[in-house]
Design goal:
- This is Helix-turn-helix domain-containing protein.
- It comes from Actinoplanes siamensis.
- It holds the Pfam family HTH_17.
- The chain is α+β, with helices and mostly antiparallel strands.
- The chain has one domain.
- The protein is built from 3 helices and 3 strands.
- The protein has a 3-stranded antiparallel beta sheet.
- The termini are far apart.
């Protein structure tokens, strides 16, 4: 049994609040409010800033997408 190749591994990009606000077409203040109310995509506090894993934002979008009709 061989070990998985680690050469292909790439970290999940961390997006800034500006990146996510632009992606979701929401004001930054909305994202800050969601974070304080534990709504919206999960964020990571890095120092005094919020960062979002792209995969977390995509997961949150999938969870909040209307079901097929």
């Amino acid at each position: 049994m061989s070990a998985p190749a680690t050469d292909d591994w790439q970290p999940d990009p961390l997006l800034t609040i500006d990146d996510v606000a632009a992606w979701l077409s929401k004001p930054k203040n909305t994202l800050y409010a969601w974070h304080s109310r534990r709504k919206g995509p999960r964020a990571i506090r890095v120092g005094n800033t919020l960062r979002y894993r792209r995969s977390e934002v995509e997961r949150w979008l999938d969870a909040h997408t209307d079901p097929e009709r």
